[in-house]
Amino acid sequence: MDTALILRQKFDRNELKDNEIDQLLNESKLVEKLTKDYEETTFFLIFRLLCLSEIPYIERLKYTQTILNTISNMMATEEGFSYTGKVKGIVPCYNALLLEAYVRLGKVDSKEVKNALNWIKQYQVFDRNQETSWKYDGICKYGGCMKKTPCYIGIGKTVRALITYAEYINHQDKEVESLIKLGSEYMLTHHMYQRLTTGKPISAHITDIMVPQAYMLSLTDLVYIAGKCGLWEDERTNELKKLLEEKAVTNNEWKIDYIYQNKGYKAFETRRNTSLWASYFINNSLNK
Fold this sequence. Notes:
Layout: H1 3-12, H2 18-27, H3 29-34, H4 42-52, H5 62-75, H6 92-104, H7 111-123, H8 152-168, H9 174-189, H10 219-228, H11 238-247, H12 276-286
Helix pairs in contact: 1-2, 4-5, 4-6, 6-7, 6-8, 8-9, 8-10, 10-12
């Protein structure tokens, strides 16, 4: 087992001692892989940051700080994160992805996180036939983020980011808690991944296991949301549980299904063998 996963497990269980952190980071082959190349391009920076953010305390590394500082300079606006660097380019998925990554990397109280969170509170919709007051047309591209039927990926990624934020602030923001409940209820009406009309998967890769996350909504994201929100007792997650059972290679073990192709994105394991990371995340969720 890579020491980065040991670090993550101990962090999640509140068993991590400060004198262990640097040693586990330094001995990790995964950390070595994630920090050996660098490009100052938008999507390299975004996807590499998402990879890094799964590993606790990796913000201690100069490499991580460089990426954080560059993203703050290139993509953090007064309204939230924009992959174009311009306010009018803000879209729900990338704003949420970077919000969650920044929270995980020790910047929960930063202005970047506050701006991204305020954008969600003011402009994100979590149901059909809702109108947003956001005035820029970037959200109308790529099929439309918030039309009469809002982008499901945007909702899912936003709910996930809000869950992470809420956990890091000990659930002190009542508005965030309300939005999580609103968004997760909308996802439950879809049985987490199904179209209302046909029952088929809503989007590409929504039934695939990925570690770490990228911009597409995956089965790993849905499992994270279900576990953190305590949704497994709701009968509307039965199809999701059945899907997990079908995908299990043995009892309580799963493989990665899909590896996103981007220079900045690095899958934590191959598709050939059982994934220790995916199995840990899924079991952790189911045991909630």
